[in-house]
Amino acid sequence: MSKISVRFFDDREVRAIWDDENAKWWFSVLDIVAVLTDQDDYNKTRNYWKYLKAKLKKEKSELVSITNQLKLEAKDGKKYLTDMLDFDGIVALGKEFPGKQANRFIEWFTFSDDSIDGKSKQKAKKST
């Protein structure tokens, strides 16, 4: 997994890693949670995800079981394991958040030409 993509939603970073073996993108859950909660504080974002993850686990949500851990570079320049979800997982995660912000994000994430998937589709169309 060598391809890393960064897109911005409302000036917030959304990082992803391309998985050659499975031919799909994996997205940083913490980046998405920060967007959906409109939170700049990393620790608060991490704690929110920890709480939500425990709640979803208790509810036997499939979302927790499809989470992978991959290494992403942090602001300190080191790589750390972080929870990642694929496209369907991120859409499911977005549905756990009520409100306009989540709806705007899901719309951007699923339909925008600026989304990671949208950019990949554009490149695929150009090369055929």
Kindly describe this structure:
The protein has 128 residues and is of the alpha+beta class. The protein has one domain. The protein contains six helices and five strands, in the order βββαααββααα. The chain has helices at 29-37, 42-58, 62-65, 87-94, 100-111, 116-127; strands spanning 4-9, 12-19, 24-28, 68-73, 79-85. Strands 1-2-3-5-4 form a five-stranded antiparallel beta sheet. A hairpin with a 2-residue loop joins strand 1 and strand 2 (12-19). Helix 1 (29-37) packs across helix 2 (42-58) and helix 4 runs antiparallel to helix 5 (100-111). The protein is globular.
Summarize the helix and strand pattern as letters. EEEHHHEEHHH
Helix content: 40-55%
How much beta, percentage-wise?
25-35%
Structurally, how many domains make up the residues?
1
Instruction: Output the strand order for the largest sheet.
Output: 1-2-3-5-4
Outline type: globular
- What is the end-to-end distance? 24 Å
Helix/strand structural class: alpha+beta
Major sheet description: 5 strands, antiparallel
State Rg.
14 Å
Query: What integer is the average pLDDT?
Result: 86
| Overall number of strands | 5
Number of separate helices: 6
Low-confidence stretches: none
Task: State the gist of this model.
With 128 residues, the chain is of the alpha+beta class.
